[in-house]
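Ticket #4471: structure output looks truncated?

Reporter: J.K.
Steps to reproduce: submitted the chain below (296 residues) through the standard prediction queue, then opened the result file.
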Amino acid sequence: MASAGSSVLGVYNPIFYAQEALIHLESALGMASRVHRGFDAERRSYGKGDTINIRRPQTFTAQSAPVSSPDGLETDTVAVTLDQWKEVKFALTDKELAYTGNRIIEDHIRPASYALADNIDQALCANVNSTVGNSASTFSASDSASTTITKMRRKLFDAKAPMDDLHMQIDGEMEETFLKDSAFSQYQGAGDAGVNTQLRGTLGTKFGMEIFANQNADTMDKTAGTLADLAGAVDGTFAKGATAVTVDGLTNGETIKIGDSFTIAGDSTVYCVTADVTVGSGEASLSCSPPLQVAP
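Returned output as attached by the reporter:
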C-alpha cells in the first residue's frame, strides 16, 4: 500500500501494485500452495476474529436391503477461527511515486509480498505439529530415506487419506540425506529421474509423493522418547467433541510435547497433543486434535 501520512496516493496504481504483488506471492509460496484450498469461498465475507463453520457431511454404513427405516441426518461442522490477518505497509511521497515508476515494483513490492508469503508459510509449518498427521509410526536413526517415506505413506493410507496428489515437505538436513541416497540420485536406483536429480538438485516424486524442501520446516527428531509412562487412565467424563482429556497414573515431572500422539481404549482414533504439558500430581490435561470422536 503506497501512502503518505493519512493520504492514499495513486487512484489507479494500487491495483497494479496489488496484481504484481500477487504474482510474486504465488510464486514464493511452498507450503501454502500445497494445502487444501477447497474452502476459500467460505471465508470471503468474514473478518479477523470471526469463526467460520465448515460443513462436514455425515458418514453412513451400508445395510442389507430392504431397509425398514432410513438413517436420520446429523449435520456437523468444523469450526475454524480466522485469527491471523497480516499486512506490510510502506510510505511514499508524491514526488517519489512520480519518479520511481516500475522501479518501485522491483525494489519494494517484491520484498513486501515475500514478507507476507513467508509469514503464511511459517504459520502453516507451525500448525503441522498440532495435527494428527504429524505422527507416522516410529522412526530411527538407521532408517533409510525410502523407509522414511514409506512409513509416512502407510500412515496416510491407514488413516484413509486420499492417496493422489501427495506432497512431502522436508528440511535442509533431510534433503541432504535424500540427495546422497542412490535411490534418489543415481541411475541404478532411480533411472533417468536420478540423473536429473544430480543435474538439478530436485528430488521430484517418489512413492507417489512430490518432495520439496522448505527452510521453514521443523527439523525431524529421530531420537527415542524418554517418557517412563506408556499408558495412563482417563480421569473423569468427557463428551464426544471435547478438545482435551485428563489422564492420570503418570509420573510427576514428565513433559508431554506438542506433536506426541496417544490412543484411548475402545477408540481407534490416533490423537495428537496440541500443547506442551508437564505432569503434576500424577496427571495431565492433554489438549488434542482431532476432538474426541467417542466419549471415553
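Triage note (M.O.): checked the attachment and the full C-alpha cell line is present. Residues 1-7 have pLDDT under 50 and may be disordered.
Status: closed, working as intended.
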